[in-house]
Design goal:
The chain has about 210 residues and is α/β, with parallel strands linked by helices. The chain is built from ten helices and six strands. A six-stranded parallel beta sheet has the order 3-2-1-4-5-6, with helices on both faces. Helix 1 packs across helix 4 and helix 5 runs parallel beside helix 10. The relative contact order is 0.20.
Length: about 210
């Protein structure tokens, strides 16, 4: 756990995951998988697929398509995604308030996600959530690249991969139990803080003080 004692250190950049952290992407992704199934004639269990969100798209598509078609199918899915998934996807409870709390504290808020970056930006714009930076196409430990580049001291996510990304970057891992991983699983993976959801985040942030260098 980070040192919570009072300090004059400036508030750090705070990173957020996107799917199942800031947005409930299940309805939109489910609809997109159903449309992809109809378009390709290939069966996809969309209800099952949305229970394991987090990893890159190819890791789900490999369950339904041969490896030599993954790039083609991923491109098709991403091209269909904006018209099907954006409007169908709501913000998670407390998402806007969490990002706004970071900015009100004088820090920068960034989003680092495995989602295709243009689609991630469309989600946030549609939902009136305005981080300072959005970085896509990074998963698990890869997220550390962007977190370090932007000086993030905290990373908030819902998945074990988000915990690994935070720890690889040397950032405090704040986990929300709103995705496929339960609170105890997140703690066991090394999350420093586990919250029920983002509605608890502004109060946590108000009491957080970065560890002294």
């Amino acid at each position: 756990m980070a040192d919570m004692a009072s300090t004059t250190a400036p508030a750090p950049t705070v990173g957020f995951d996107l799917d199942m952290t800031l947005i409930d992407s299940r309805p939109g992704i489910r609809a997109c998988y159903q449309a992809l199934s109809e378009r390709t004639g290939t069966y996809i269990d969309a209800d099952l697929a949305v229970t394991r969100l987090g990893p890159p798209l190819a890791e789900e598509l490999i369950n339904w398509f041969p490896e030599d078609r993954l790039a083609e199918i991923a491109d098709l899915y991403r091209s269909m995604y904006p018209a099907i998934a954006i409007a169908a996807t709501p913000a998670m409870p407390g998402a806007r308030e969490a990002v706004d709390a970071v900015k009100a504290a004088g820090a920068r808020a960034i989003v680092v996600t495995a989602k295709f970056e243009p689609n991630a930006k469309m989600h946030l714009e549609h939902l009136d959530i305005h981080p300072d930076e959005v970085v896509g196409d990074l998963w698990a430990e890869q997220k550390a690249q962007a977190l370090r580049e932007h000086g993030a001291g905290v990373y908030v996510g819902d998945h074990l991969g988000d915990v690994r990304g935070a720890r690889t970057a040397g950032a405090l891992s704040v986990a929300v139990a709103t995705g496929p991983c339960g609170a105890e699983e997140l703690r066991a993976a090394g999350a420093d803080v586990v919250l029920d959801d983002l509605t608890r985040f502004p109060a946590w942030l108000a009491g957080y003080r970065p560890a002294r260098a």
